[in-house]
Amino acid sequence: MSMAAPHEPRRDRINTSTPMRCPICGGQLSDVLIRDLGGVTADITWQIHAGKCDQHGWFQTEVVSRPPREIFSVTRPFGAARRIVVDGREHFSFSTTWNDLPLNERRQKVDPLEARYWQTKPLTKRSSSRTSTTSS
Q: Do residues 81 and 56 lie in contact, with contact meaning Cβ atoms separated by under 8 Å?
């Protein structure tokens, strides 16, 4: 007796849009992948957002009902962290404006996909920064 597998919801959205931008140059990311990881309850958004900057490589972040606290440089979506050197300083992750808000503001209910919370602090003057990337 053959039993058909129940229809599973689509977990991956490919070539879609994300509020995440390249934390180095601020540019829009290409090859965006958003993976829905589900949630404990129906009202929790739990996703991985990944995208590629043509100049600076892959980045990803995790969204669990709140905007992300940091964006990570990675070798590929769901891959290992990678080191990026900007003006002689190593970076593996980039803090977002959400992470810098006072605790009482972070406790407020907000849209986790609100782009202003995903912005990263400038590392240097973006137009003149020199970068190199390596996998680690």
A: no
Beta-strand ranges (E) seen in the chain are 12-14, 30-36, 46-53, 57-64, 70-74, 82-86, 89-91, 93-95, 131-135
Q: In terms of DSSP H, where are the helices of 2-125? A: 97-100, 103-106
Q: Which of 38, 41, 40, 15 is nearest to 28 (CA)?
A: 15
Q: How far apart are CA 102 and CA 1, in angstroms?
A: 59
> What is the per-residue pLDDT across 5-55, written as a single tens digit (0 to 9) for each?
555 557 888 989 999 999 999 999 999 999 988 765 666 778 999 999 999
User: Strand runs (DSSP E) across 67-117, as ranges?
Assistant: 70-74, 82-86, 89-91, 93-95
Residue with the two structure tokens 């965006």? 32
pTM of the predicted structure, to 2 decimals:
0.80
- Give the HSE-up count for residue 95: Cα atoms under 13 Å, Cβ half-sphere: 7
